[in-house]
Amino acid sequence: MDFRYLGNSGLKVSEISYGNWLTHGSQVENEQAKACVKAALEAGITTFDTADTYANTKAESVLGEALEGVRRESVEILTKVYWPTGPGGPNDTGLSRKHIHESINASLKRLKTDYVDVYQAHRYDTETPLEETMEAFADVVRQGKALYIGTSEWTAEQLQEGHRLARELRIPLVSNQPQYSMLWRVIEAEVVPASEELGIGQVVFSPIAQGVLTGKYLPGQQPPEGSRATDEKGGANMITRYLNDDVLTRVQQLKPIAEEAGLSLAQLAITWVLQNPNVSSAIIGASRPEQVTENVKAAGVKLEEGQLKQIDEALGSVIERDPAKTAQNSPQTRPGR
Fold first, then answer.
1. What is the pLDDT of residues 141-194, one digit of tens each?
2. 297 with 291: CB under 8 angstroms?
3. Predicted structure pTM score
4. 5, 18, 54, 242: the active-site residue
5. CATH assignment of 3-211+273-300?
6. Start and end of every NADP-dependent oxidoreductase domain (predicted)?
7. Could you tell me the residue ranges of all domains in the chain?
8. Which alpha helices (H) appear in the chain, and where do they start and end?
């Protein structure tokens, strides 16, 4: 495993991290989830990402149990706040001072730890003054409950304003967690340049585009049984936009490129996002330990310029690059259950 600095901070994270969105506490039985975490640790992964909203708090609990007995200082735990938790009452969501303080305390109990390494704003809250949000995050840091602050799916302008307030409050805002893959490149035009200027690193999710970039979904055929596209617990609706013959046909054209590089399609996809120097870590998920073992082989691989050009040519017009998609994919009002 190779390690990278998280933004311009002194914190190093494993360049492949393990996340439990859509798996722990919902799709995957607890013992299997713990086996996946064990496989991640054995593969050299030290960075673990979760959120209070995943499986409505259950994912944090499973991760906390899975990491019991592991030396706390040897791992980096990232969690998030914003989306609804609990019964979804009027203050069970957003980035108000009330919700942030109540959420960090509950997350720490579930994760069985005194602090998280990075506490992330899971989206931008349009209904709470940013000053209130950042002051609450500053309190969390000064109380020793989080070492660093991060965001998720913030626009370039939101990152700039958040970073300005963080500097005034003298707290380290060092990361952003966006969706990023060969197919979804919306951060490249605005978010990445702003982040490079601010010293913010990307911890990217869905590097294999919800499984589409594994090549297992074939044009003209029904999704394989047991795949994310057939999951009624939430996975299916996340992958729908990619399940058209144009996208799936172009993904199949990546196979010779992966073979030339000595990689599986999934490994190629993870390796691809790691070629971006602003990416500090790529999050992988898993429902089986062997998936972790295979995907970590993407660490430390360098793709040649010719291979990157071949990937662009193979995917062509199905690549989404519109920077406006970042804002469009975030709620314009606070969500409720």
1. 999 999 999 999 999 999 999 999 999 999 999 999 999 999 999 999 999 999
2. no
3. 0.92
4. 54
5. 3.20.20.100
6. 15-314
7. 3-211+273-300
8. 30-42, 58-66, 97-111, 130-142, 156-169, 191-198, 235-239, 245-252, 255-261, 265-274, 289-295, 305-315, 325-328
